[in-house]
User: Fold this.
Amino acid sequence: MEKKNVVIHDKITIGISACCMGSPVRYNNKGWDMLATLGREKQDFMWCPVCPETMSGLGVPRDPIHLSGGDGLMVLSGEAKIKNRRGRDVTEEVLLGCGSCMETLKRANATAYIYMDGSPTCGVYRTSLKKQKRGNPPGIFGAMLLDEEMFLIPATDVQSPIKWWDWRRRLLAFHWFRSLPLENKDDLYKAWYVLKFLCQEIDDTFARDLGRKLADLPKNVEEDTMKSIRKEILETLRKPSTVKKITHSLWKNYSYYRKTKGQEVEGINSPDFRRNVTTIAKELLLMERTAFEEEVFFATSPVIYRDKRRMPKVEAYDAEMDEEIENTLKGILPEEE
Ligand code: SF4
Assistant:
């Protein structure tokens, strides 16, 4: 089987807590532009900002709200309430706001959501912004997002070049695999062949177990088995990797590149070489781009996005890719870099 990266040309739609995209919709009339660090890469996605509290009709500025008597899941099941600072019960309004934002995300066909953790509404793993306190996670909208099995990215991770790189590559793989038609065992094997290395990096035990399970599959695989395997792989792709694992994968992929092409790439360092995460992110982008140009499989980032209109003719290709990587780095690197 030919080893090749999957290239997708359709932009992925990402929902985002509107206050993290610069809208001053928080209770105190504030917001942050957390996407500014992405630079030109921001154009590679379609964004769908929503604010469930504003859609509740509570207005800006408003009294802050909190979960009372349970977490967001319990609010959804009617066992807990949402109250504002004055003690007014605003459960009904907030549920309507959350419902209407979820409808918007579905209409937009959003695959992922960048959430503001620490919010009683959009928070997933924290519903309090106070240091050390987790609150009562998930928040109300956070609970809905979990229920919809969205690919969930904490907004603070977008600020870190290496964390964002990790989230982006897994998101692309997740998006591609989620809607990939799987009609038979062959389709599943082909997809696993593309995703195996990345899944091994994230969770080696899972990848080994799944490899064994796939080898034992009968000729005709039941639809339910196919669905459950797809679910397990998607679950794994949702999990973040670590800098250590990423650095080792980069080196393995680079070694494969050197063996295949018989040439080196200046600037890629071995895992033992001490450098900061920004430098590692630079190396990853360089290797990703080089492997794509040279048509060598870069297994740690197996699905990549390229705008069809920006797929240049061969002679213009190098210059355009140089400009693209420079712009991406300009967006994610701190000033002094
Ligand atoms: S965290 Fe969610 S509900 Fe709160 S202001 Fe931001 S978008 Fe609105």
User: Anything to note?
Assistant: The chain has two domains: 11-158, 161-337. The chain has eleven helices and eight strands. The longest helix spans residues 243-261.
